[in-house]
Write a structure and sequence with these properties.
- This protein is an alpha/beta fold and 970 residues long.
- Helices cover 47% and strands 11% of the residues.
- The protein has 34 helices and 25 strands.
- Helix 28 packs antiparallel against helix 30 (898-905) and helix 32 packs antiparallel against helix 33 (946-959).
- The longest helix is centred in the middle third of the chain and has 36 residues, at 578-613.
- The two termini are 41 Å apart.
């Protein structure tokens, strides 16, 4: 391994700084390079390569792999393009892998324009174009699947470009990148392209270990300077005092190649000579004083303060500019085109609507004609009825004015149109979610961050320094803009020093998310056997990082053992063995805590049990939660580990109740009959049922005989054994000689410190033990589960054979791989027609947002209801097995896509399909494509029942139509 630039180098060297001898040597090198592949490649470009690009290309030309880590927009993809050029010149194949289909489509279009459609192919989960071409763009999962299937497409493969390789930190899909890196043939050169990460040396060292000679080329230099601003009211103010750009605030490099630690971020700006703009600090102080004196409500006007307001603001309190005002200010200062990041799809759509309704226009008449032509061409094949459902006309109106949203809920075709119009400078303001920052090539002159926090699915959290760098890295178009601009909108409570800390930190560590899955494990066993498979897994980046961390942990253990000896000396007592006395005190404390926890566990168990026993029609009184009060149980929840039955409150609201809503076991107070015609989606049905419940409560109607299913809830009895042990320990404590020591509490304090440090030290020792061979141990547990299900058979001598069912599992890729295989094995797909097969496949693919999970819907047919029951029951069994084996749990089957997909497969219109759901058109298309991918996998499984294979192919044809078929490569 070699590092051809220093970690986080700041960019090219000025020729004027070179000595005459160095300039002569550089000139000689350029003349020699002109006769090489790199020289020929550079002559095809209309710009000069930067130093880091040239160094990376030389490494590839000399037969070494490369890891290139550089900021967004620095031009690292040119290294990938040189790898492709080398492959074409040497008669070899090149694969260009990307993490997302949108980026694959974009790169395919670029390479097709450069090398011709005959020489370039595209392979994603649902699209296959010219797959045997010399250059193929694909998603990383496709390459992983090829490697496990030993595909003939891999023949003559010479180069693999792994774009956005930092995706291997993604906890859902990251393992795929490591699988590919580990399994690629040794003769294949890998060009890994990454965003700037703070542990590039560590990642490069691992690449060098598993791939052979790999050069690490890291640059912090941005070819277009990035300026940091805060928009206060209507006024855009510099974040830093003086002329300070992105490169100048980059942190120093420590001796180990790491950037400075996160804890220094708030001090760095001042500590390294980069002061925060004093005007911003004045605004922050003034706002704080105003808030303290007058405590105004949202939008309220307090007493006059001393702060200096921005335009449109108020003295002492800043009124944030509206979205149209922000865009107008940027336009006035010639800072468009701009991307405004809003961490909400609805917020992005609302922003476009607000700008349109404000009467703001950013386009000329000529630009409007071009936009209209392109948009109408893109929508030419979409039926008029679908255009209305897709919100086409509203979208088109925004584009004509120069505005667009960009988020995952949009139709892929619409997103691609927005990307192309923005890249061509026709759309001037895009409002996007953070997914845009994950690889799609849409640079802008300016980037605006509305807020510095986001909802991560569970809570509102601050964005990290790494996320800030990724988002603002879009600002500044190479070859177009002289400089880029990052603008943070001032919100109440904004701390300029904290913003400066985010802007000046480059801490973005790359941490492995690798773990053996069922499919991965069985493929490794089939190809290499158990012993070799364990060795391969131990070569993963995850194990590499774990092994490195053990060294530091061992150092901590040695230091703590020395401290423990000192603590032991300080707690010595002249009356007796204080260590024994301290042990009794500790045992007493632990016993009291254990008794309290045991009582809590019994209470929780009884509460869970009471929830699981509730039946439809029971009327209960919910003591807490979001909507306390009486409610009618609509559906039971017997199978879940944490039951959450669905209820209807007396104010007609549908919700689920769980353990957090209870103060103890819950029992029905009365019971009513739920009519067979009841439909929870119909407001009148809900009102009528709530009225029936109110009448039953008013009449004080007791539950029917036999309905008191909770008669044993009083069994949370005292725990006599624990109570006796506590009493015995208290007596022993009083009888101990040290109990009468005058310095007892002083000794006890030292003892507490000893016990606490001992516990922490033992924990570190356990961490060391746990991190040694941790990936291989997980692999062993996965093998145990596969053996228990009959996918692996013991062949003796420690060898494992793959059963016929195991061979089928080898061809199933997905987060629910084993559940899918079990569903096939148990006949869940039997007795279904093609539309029902598609609907059942959605159960094994779809993932609903937690807040979108509602009541279990009735299935479209009896046969599908039976099949879903098989899948849900098998999932419940599998979850228990995984829990017992300490493995990550397989996600619960989701039924929210069954009806929409069934209707779509039956040929219904898009409006009918999406009616009554919360699905956006783009989400629907994305999930249907994933269902197509699964059905395609199933159809190609060797030895699958021919009838089922035929049905899978038929189901694909039924659902790959309309907007789903349109949303391919433009």
């Amino acid at each position: 391994m070699s590092s051809t630039t220093g970690p986080f180098s700041t960019g090219p060297v000025d020729p004027e700084e070179l000595s005459p001898a160095e300039r002569y040597r550089a000139s000689a090198e350029r003349r020699a390079e002109a006769a090489t592949y790199l020289g020929a490649f550079t002559r095809t470009l209309d710009f000069e390569l930067d130093d880091f690009q040239r160094q990376a290309c030389r490494s590839l030309q000399e037969g070494r792999g490369v890891l290139v880590a550089a900021p967004t927009g620095a031009g690292k993809t040119i290294v990938g393009e040189f790898a492709i050029y080398l492959a074409l010149q040497r008669g070899l194949k090149a694969f260009y892998t990307t993490p997302i289909k949108a980026l694959s489509n974009q790169k395919y279009s670029e390479l097709t324009a450069k090398y011709g459609a005959d020489n370039v192919g595209l392979l994603t989960g649902d699209t296959s174009i010219n797959g045997d071409a010399q250059v193929v763009v694909m998603t990383t999962e496709v390459l992983r699947n090829m490697l496990y299937a030993d595909s003939a497409t891999l023949d003559d493969l010479g180069y693999v470009v792994m774009d956005e390789v930092h995706y291997l930190a993604d906890r859902f899909r990251g393992a795929v990148w490591e699988e590919v890196i580990i399994h690629l043939p040794s003769e294949v050169q890998v060009a890994s392209l990454s965003a700037t990460v703070s542990n590039a040396e560590e990642f490069g060292a691992w690449l060098d270990t598993v791939r052979g000679d790999t050069d690490i080329i890291v640059s912090e230099h941005r070819p277009v300077p990035l300026w940091q601003h805060v928009m206060v009211g209507w006024q855009i103010m510099d974040l830093f005092a003086g002329e300070t750009t992105f490169d100048e605030i980059a942190p120093p490099v420590e001796e180990d190649g790491q950037t400075d630690t996160p804890g220094t971020s708030r001090e760095r700006a001042k500590g390294r000579g980069f002061d925060v703009n004093p005007d911003l600090l004045t605004v922050a102080r003034s706002e704080s004083q105003q808030s303290f004196r007058s405590r105004p409500g949202p939008g309220g006007r307090g007493r006059r303060g001393n702060g200096r307001p921005g335009r449109g603001g108020e003295p002492g309190g800043v009124r944030p500019a509206s979205r149209p005002q922000v865009i107008a200010s940027l336009d006035r200062m010639d800072l468009l085109p701009a991307i405004t990041f809003i961490f909400s799809r609805a917020g992005c759509e609302a922003a476009v609507a607000q700008c349109v309704s404000s009467g703001l226009w950013l386009t000329t008449e000529k630009e409007q004609r071009i936009i209209a032509q392109r948009v109408d061409e893109a929508a030419m094949d979409i039926p008029p009825d679908d255009l209305d459902v897709l919100g086409f006309w509203t979208w088109r109106d925004g584009l004509l004015r120069g505005f667009a949203a960009h988020h995952a809920g949009m139709l892929p075709t619409f997103k691609e149109v927005v990307e192309k119009l923005f890249a061509d400078g026709l759309v001037k303001a895009v409002f996007a979610t953070e997914t845009l920052a994950l690889g799609v090539n849409m640079p802008a002159r300016s980037v605006v961050l509305e807020k510095l926090d986001k909802f991560n699915g569970e809570a509102h959290v601050d964005i990290t320094a790494g996320e800030y760098t990724q988002l603002t890295g879009r600002a500044g178009r190479r070859g177009i803009d002289v400089e880029g601009h990052a603008v943070v909108l001032w919100q109440p409570g904004t701390d300029p020093t904290a913003v400066a800390g985010l802007a000046s930190r480059r801490t973005y560590p790359l941490n492995s998310s690798f773990r053996p899955t069922y499919n991965m494990s069985i493929n490794l066993l089939a190809q290499f056997g158990r012993a070799r498979a364990r060795e391969i897994l131990e070569s993963s980046f995850a194990q590499f990082q774990a092994d490195r961390s053990v060294v530091g942990l061992a150092r901590q253990v040695r230091s703590r053992e020395e401290s423990l000896a000192g603590y032991a000396k300080s707690m010595t007592c002249h009356l007796g063995d204080f260590t024994e006395y301290a042990r009794l005190r500790r045992e007493l404390s632990d016993a009291e805590n254990a008794t309290s926890k045991a009582k809590s566990r019994v209470r929780k168990s009884l509460s869970d049990d009471s929830l699981a026993r509730l039946l439809p029609g029971d009327v209960v009184n919910v003591p807490g939660g979001r909507a306390p009060g009486p409610a009618v149980v609509l559906s039971s929840d017997h199978s879940s580990r944490e039951p959450r039955p669905a209820v209807l409150t007396l104010d007609n609201q549908l919700r689920r109740i769980g353990i957090d809503d209870l103060e103890g076991p819950i029992a029905p107070v009365t019971r009513i009959r739920i009519p067979k015609s009841f439909n929870a989606k119909v407001p009148k049905s809900r009102r009528d049922l709530a009225s029936s419940a109110r009448n039953a409560l008013r009449e004080n109607r007791a539950p029917a005989p036999g309905q008191n299913r909770n008669h044993d809830f009083g069994r949370a009895a005292a725990l006599p054994n624990q109570e006796k042990r506590i009493a015995d320990l208290r007596r022993a404590l009083r009888a101990h000689p040290c109990h009468g020591c005058s310095e007892r509490e002083d000794h006890a304090r030292w003892s507490e410190r000893w016990w606490k440090l001992r516990r922490e030290t033992d924990g570190l020792v356990r961490q060391i033990q746990g991190r040694t061979n941790t990936i291989a141990k997980t692999f062993d547990r996965v093998c145990d589960v596969l053996s228990s299900y009959g996918y692996l058979e013991d062949a003796g001598d420690g060898r494992l054979n793959i059963s016929p069912d195991g061979q089928r599992l080898r061809r199933i890729y997905g987060e629910k791989d084993l559940l899918i295989s079990q569903s096939l094995r148990l006949g869940a797909f039997n007795d279904l027609d093609a539309a029902e097969v598609a609907a059942l496949a959605s159960v094994l693919v779809y993932q609903a947002k937690r807040e979108d999970r509602g009541l279990r819907p009735r299935m479209p047919s009896v046969s599908l209801e039976t099949s879903v029951d098989i899948v849900v029951r098998e999932w419940s069994v599998l979850e228990d097995v995984e829990e017992e084996n300490k493995l990550p749990l397989t996600g619960e089957p989701e039924l929210g896509l069954v009806w929409p997909l069934y209707k779509w497969a039956r040929g219904r219109h898009l409006q009918d399909v999406l009616s009554g759901t919360d699905l956006a058109a783009g989400d629907f298309v994305r999930w249907v494509k994933q269902v197509v991918d699964l059905l395609d996998q199933l159809a190609k499984i060797p030895g699958l029942d021919p009838r089922l294979a035929r049905l899978c192919a038929e189901a694909i044809n039924l659902i790959r139509r309309g907007v789903v078929a349109y949303s391919s490569v433009l």
